[in-house]
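Why do we bother with holo predictions? Because pocket geometry can differ from the apo form. Keep that in mind while you read this record for nicotinamide-adenine-dinucleotide.
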Amino acid sequence: MELRRLAGTDLQLSKLGFGAAPLGDVYGTIDRAAGVRAVRVALDLGVNVIDVSPYYGRTLAETVLGKSLAGVDRAAYVLASKVGRYGLAEFDFTAGRVRSSVDESLGRLGVDYLDLVQVHDIEFGDLDQIVAETVPALYELRDAGKIRYVGATGYPLGALGSVAARVPLDTVLSYCRYTLLDQAIEDWLPFFQERGTAVLNASPLAMGALTARGAPDWHPAPRAVLECCARAARFSGEQGSPLEKLALQFSAAHPAFATTFVGMADEQEVRRNIAWVDQPPDDRLLAQVRALIAPVHGYAWPSGRPENDVMVPPRAGGSA
Ligand code: NAD
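The structure, written out:
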């Protein structure tokens, strides 16, 4: 598997990253042993970076991941977790909770440091607090040797931009914003690059919408968008190629992202995604599917506090 340098760090990441949300039953109840095995097979086949959070399954994903990683050489993988979000509507961005949360994650994961800790879903918080309290608390943990790099995650790019403009961040994780449905992150890449903030790409399958199985019930996109995706999935299947293959190949092909995290729940998904990720998308099918999706292309759903998403992408070289 191709390795790519995460800009501004000493980390080399596999082009395909393991998204651990499904290990927390976020996409339906999974077989625990199959989840553990999925992680091990991914590591054996060259995936070297894993993203998790205490929020996924309310600590379940970290617990399952901890079982998967037991006995694996710590230097063989890059481990990213998060702080700040703990339930659907449970957030705590205080410095005290940052410290206890990281300690709890270390315990569940069975490791003595995390490579990256990200403030989870910042659009739901008070951005002033995140800038003045949450991120500085993470830098203190970095200085204490518990974590190596500091980042933030979220859906509205304006929220990620306004925090990155005010406080140094090693990474931002953006999800569902570079998929067949929406490529809005592209407008922000020069801005983050100028600040030395690397962009991690996540959810190439638009959280299940771009799969034959379809989106889970909780998916935030409106019905019209999901129905359009379902039509695209049927069409792609009729052409003899699953939509998830095209979606993953499209998303992971962008050279700006060191890795693209896809959520995986079992060994079969891991093996298929690893086989697909290094091949280019089929251009003809890509054009046909993009035409089918065009009516809903670029739709973005509301997420978090509206006042946190007011920034527009500044032009390269301009001020923020
Ligand atoms: P995704 O777009 O990666 O889709 C995951 C779904 O697709 C799961 O149901 C999975 O079982 C299924 N899938 C994977 N490979 C498949 C295949 N080959 N065939 C059919 N189905 C397949 O969405 P995601 O998991 O939400 O996102 C990826 C990861 O990115 C997450 O697991 C998480 O680690 C991270 N993420 C972070 C945030 C955040 O920080 N706010 C938000 C979203 C995602």
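Residues 19-22, 27, 51, 120-121, 153, 173, 175, 202-208, 211, 244, 261-265, 269, 272-273 surround nicotinamide-adenine-dinucleotide (CB under 6 Å).
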